[in-house]
Amino acid sequence: MKELVILSGKGGTGKTSLVGSIAALAKDNVLVDGDVDAANLYLIARPDIKEKFSFIGSKEAVINQSECNNCGICLDYCRFNAISFKKSGDGSKAEQYLIDQIKCEGCGVCASFCPLGAIEMKDRVSGEWYVSDSRLGPMVHGYLGVGQGNSGKLVTVLREKARQVAREKGQDLIIVDGPPGIGCPAIASLNGADYVLIITEPTLSAFHDLDRLLSLTNHFKIRACICINKCDINAKVAGQIEEYASEKGAGVVGWINYDPAVSRAQADRTTLMEYISNDTTDQIRDLWNKVKHELSDNVSQKE
Amino acid sequence: MNDEHLIITVASGKGGTGKTTVATNLAATLAWMGQSVLYLDADVEEPNGHIFIKPEIEQEKVITRPVPEVDLEKCNFCGKCSEVCQFHAIVVIKDKVLVFPELCHSCGGCYHICPEKAIVEKPNQIGVVRVGAGNGVSFVEGRLGIGEIVVPPLIRAAKESVSESKTIIVDAPPGTSCPVIEALDGSDYVLLVTEPTPFGLHDLKLVMSLVKELGMPFGVIINRAGNGYREVNSFCRNEGAEVLLEILDDRAIASACSEGRLVVEDNIDYRRNLETLYKKITERVSLERTGNFKR
């Protein structure tokens, strides 16, 4: 069983659209949408949800106002500016200590140090996730409620479930649609992965972000290869990326032109691969053939 | 900050819609109007604003956060630190104490709870804040260290480095989770940049609900418009969300951005549109401040 994670560094380079097309080409794969902050893959995968789970990301502190004596020790200890002393707005008390649930980190320090035990740490349901069937393979996806943290934790949960599903169904490939960036959720999606496919574009911004992402994959010692999407926007920068990639030992395995049909396919709630047959879909096929080859190389290297 | 200052945050739900393009070009436009303006790059995981502002960096500050260090001479391995930690960042096993700085949220719980006072907090580097100026724009950028996962303290540190400028343009990260909350904190107005696609619409809904929950005035910019997909416009109409500007998809704009050039250097229409946008924003914020805005 191998896990292929698709990342970009910069957002908007076309990860999710390409993951859709790759999943349409791949056989025996489980799909994971690791971009839990803004989970879009389901829009084109159209999964049939079979199981639903609540995600408890952390705890949240809640003050029991009837037990609180307004000593203010909780505010002194809170490092996240989550506690304030003000009118609650419901007219019951003049002013009281209130916890802002968006800022509350769930660290529990206020609860530990409240002399009256008036603060309770409650499980915070911060999202939901699903196991589904789809025409692109079994799928594990979920979402975090807006403003919630611990996205990395949810990504880890999804990947673990995907491995379980792959084992049960005898699938030998997990494809993870990763999040943008290089922080917590990106790290959670590549930790322990077999291979990373980086989708970039020929712009200086994407190039800059690609460099940071490659530092991250090197940090975790995971092999990476690169696909230059929308490669015809700027041949010069595309060339710079190719040169850079060969210096870094991360091969460029795909060149895909900008194609307005991608948005049309998306509006049709499907992948480009299933929507049309054109030069772009040929390019995606080439990309997938090279990635398959890299994945099988990876196995023989490990052995 | 007095009432003269204006903080405009540029956010999106989806990555790649054009936040940095709008934020940097807006900052440059205001500077060329003779305004005192600062551009703050709060997308600390992948800060790109410098490519367009081209600042000369005057100062680079190392940003740290406190992480526990245990004095094993004083420690009696009672395990209270481990019990209080919600993030499994400090673990006591028999006569060993393991600290995982990357998991630590710097809440101070272990430090406060230790009965033997065996824990001190040591600074752990998470990234840097760079300060400078370019193209008439004051510049502040937060830049996360590779492999670091805790982001909000770095965004806070970047905001603390902001000098007195009349207008501050904050370039937020994509998404809707804690880094975005931190970037949005303190905004007078939020610009939501989206694209006319199903992914763009889906993520716009997420970020719009966040901004509404935070009670901030906002407006929408539809970038790369003109492909016939009108669902974003319908959605905004139904939500009473004002579409302030539609920027047509333009190969020349894409080309300029791909090379790190400010669009407003060559494109007068783009510049005029941003000037008008700014006027609309100041009018709206003025109404908010005087309590005259009817929701």
Q: Helices and strands in order, then pairings?
A:
The complex is a heterodimer of chains A (303) and B (295).
Chain A: E1 2-7, H1 15-25, E2 29-33, H2 41-45, E3 48-63, H3 73-77, E4 83-86, E5 96-99, H4 109-113, E6 119-133, E7 139-144, H5 151-169, E8 173-177, H6 184-190, E9 195-200, H7 204-219, E10 224-229, H8 235-248, E11 252-256, H9 261-267, H10 272-275, H11 279-302
Parallel strand pairs in A: 1-8, 1-9, 2-7, 2-8, 9-10, 10-11
Antiparallel strand pairs in A: 3-6, 4-5, 6-7
Helix pairs in contact in A: 1-11, 5-6
Chain B: E1 6-11, H1 19-32, E2 37-41, H2 49-53, E3 56-70, H3 80-84, E4 90-93, E5 96-99, H4 109-113, E6 119-134, E7 137-144, H5 152-160, E8 167-171, H6 178-184, E9 189-194, H7 198-213, E10 218-225, H8 231-239, E11 243-248, H9 251-258, H10 268-289
Parallel strand pairs in B: 1-8, 1-9, 2-7, 2-8, 9-10, 10-11
Antiparallel strand pairs in B: 3-6, 4-5, 6-7
Your description of this structure?
- The complex is a heterodimer of chains A (303) and B (295).
- By secondary structure, chain A is α/β, with parallel strands linked by helices.
- Helices cover 39% and strands 26% of the residues of chain A.
- Chain A contains eleven helices and eleven strands.
- In chain A, helix 8 links the parallel strand 10 and strand 11.
- Chain A is elongated, with a radius of gyration of 23 Å.
- The C terminus of chain A is likely disordered.
- Chain B has 295 residues and is of the alpha/beta class.
- In chain B, the strands form two sheets. In chain B, strands 3-6-7-2-8-1-9-10-11 form a nine-stranded mixed sheet, with helices on both faces. A two-stranded antiparallel sheet of chain B has the order 4-5.
- In chain B, helix 7 links the parallel strand 9 and strand 10.
- The radius of gyration of chain B is 22 Å and the shape is elongated.
- The mean pLDDT of chain B is 94.
- The chains are: A alpha/beta (303), B alpha/beta (295).
- The interface between A and B is large, with 61 and 55 residues.
